[in-house]
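Open question from group meeting: does this chain pack into something compact, or does most of it stay loose? Before anyone orders reagents, we agreed to write out a predicted structure and look at it together. Recording both the input and the output here so the notebook holds the full record.
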Amino acid sequence: MSQPPEPHTIMKHLTTILLSIPLFLTTLSAVTIPTTPHGEIDIDKIDSYVNADPDSAIIICNEALHTHTPLTPVIESQLLTVRGNAFFTLGDSPAAIADFSKAAALAEEAADTTLCVNALSDLGVAYRVNQQSDSALICYNKALDMLHGTGNDMLEANILTSIAILFANQGRLTEALPFAEKGMEKARLTDDIETQIYAASTLGSALFIAGEHNRGLATQRHIVGVAERKGIPRYILKTYAAIMAMHNRLGNPDSVRHYINRGNILLQKVPEASVESIGFMEQSFVILTAMGRYRESLDIQMKILDMKDSRPFMPLDRLWQRIALNYKGLGDIENMDRAYTNAIAIADSIHQSDIDTRISEFNVRYETAGKELEIANLKAAQSRRDTFIAIFAALIVIALLILGFYLRSRRRKAEIANIFARLEGIEQERGRLAHELHDGVCNDLLGIELSLAASGNTDSELAEMVRSTRNEVRSISHELLPPRFNGLSLSQLLADYALKSNGFVTFLPGGNIALDTQASINLYRIVQEWVANLRRHSSATSVVVSLTQTDGTATLEIIDNGAPFDPSATPHRGLGLENINRRIKALQATCTNTVRDRRNIFSVNFPT
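C-alpha cells returned:
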C-alpha cells in the first residue's frame, strides 16, 4: 500500500504545514480538490495525505467522487483505492475492503492491469488483516496471473511478499519462505524503498521463525535502519514489533526494552488505531507479561480497549484472558475474576444470541396458539352451552386424570431435559478445556521444546520429558473432545478406543447396532469414565468391553479383573460416577454390578 516517507527536516515540516492549509480551510468552506495543470484530479497529491492525514484524504476523495461527474472508470478506481488505503490506515478494514473491491472491478472493466493488480494487492492485505485468509489468497492468485509476463517487478514483489505473510500466519512456513525469498529478489530489482522494506521485513521474520536467527535478525536490523533513514514511521513500527519478538525469543531483555521504548515514542507519529500501532502494542503487552511487567502490559491492553476505532488482531475473548493473567500476576483476584467472566461472556455471546432468538420465536408461537385456542373455546361455548352443563362434571374428572398424567409426564420430560442440558454443558466444557490444552499448553510446551533446541541445550532427558508431556497433554485434549462419528458406528469408535489403551482394554463387538448420535456419545462417555475409575482406583490389569443387542434391548458390559467395586456402597461419589448416573438416566437405562468367576461385571441395559 502507498506509504510515503514522513518529513523529518525543517523544510519537509514546512511542506507538510503548507499541504495541510487547504484541509484546514475545508472546515470553513467547500473542500479544495487538488488538480493538475491540465485540470485533472491530482491523484498523487491526494494519495500523499494517506499517511500524514488519512481523515483529510477520505474527505477529499468523497468530495471528488460526488462532485466530479462523470468520472472515468480509471479515475474512480484510483480514488477508491486511495480512500481504501486511508480507511486501512485508520484501522477500518471492512470499509477498506469495500473500496478496494469496487476499485478492482472498475480497473478490470477499464482493462488497466497495473491499477487492477494494485487494488487486488491492497484488497488481499485488508482481507488478511480481517482474518479472511481464503479471500486474500484468491486476490493474490488473480493478481499474479494478471502480472504474468508484464515485467512489473514492484507489483510482483508486493504480491509475493503478501502471499509469504499469509502462509506464515497460517503456520505453513515451508511454503512461506520460498515466496519471501522470491519477493525479496523482485524487490531488489526496483528503486521503490517501501517495496524493499516490506519484502525484507517479511523475509527476516520468516528466516527467524525457520531457525536462522542470526540471518533473520540481521535482515530486520538492516531494513529498520533504511526505514529510519527514510523516515517511514509505519514501517519502522512494524519492524520494531518483529525485532522485539526476536530478542524476546533469544532472551535479550535489554534489547526488548530498548525497542519498546523507541516504539512508544514512534506511536505518537502514527494513527493510534492503525494496524501497525495495534500490532506493535499487542506484541508489547505479550512480551511485557512474559517479563513479569504486569502493570505496563495491563496499561497497554486497557488503552487498546479504550480506542473507539481499534480492531485488535487478537480475538477479544483471548485479549480478556491475557488481561486476567496480568491481574493474576498483580495479585488482584477480584479483577482477574471479572476479566475471565468477560472472556467467557464474549465467547458465549453468539450462542446466547441464538438462544434468545429461539425463545422469542417460541413466545410468538405460544401467544398465537393461545389466541386461537381462546377463539375456539368461545365458539364452542356458544354452540354447546346447553349440553356442556350436563357433561361438565364428567369432563372435570377426565381433565383431572389427564392433568395428573400430563404433570407426571412433564416432570419426567423436564428431568430428562435437565439431564441433557447438563450433559451438553459438560461436553461444551470438555471441548473448551480440550482446545485450551491443545492451543495453549501444547503450544507453550512446543515453544519450550523449540527454545531448548535453539539454545543448544544438550540435555536429552529434559527434552524428552518436555516432548512426552506435550504428547500426554495432546492425548488428554483429544480424549476430552466429543467423539466424532463421521460415518463410524459406536462399535468402531470403541474398537479404536481399545486400540489406543496399550492393551489395557479389549473390545468384543456384537454385530451392527443402530444407535442415534446422542445415545452413542453417552455410551462412549460411560466407557471412558468407568475405565478411568478402574485405572485410578482398582488393581485391574485388563478390561473387556462388549456391546450386544437382543429383542429391542442393547447391553453394554465392562468386565475387569480388579478388586470388587460397588459404586452404590461408596459414601462420597466423585464427578465421574455422577456423570455416569446422569447418562444412564438420559438413556432411560438400568445398570447392575455383579461378580462372576472373580471378575467384576458392570452392565448397562437400555431400549433401542
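Observations to bring back to the group:
Residues 237 and 263 are 6 Å apart (CA to CA).
Confidence is low (pLDDT under 50) at residues 1-29, 361-366.
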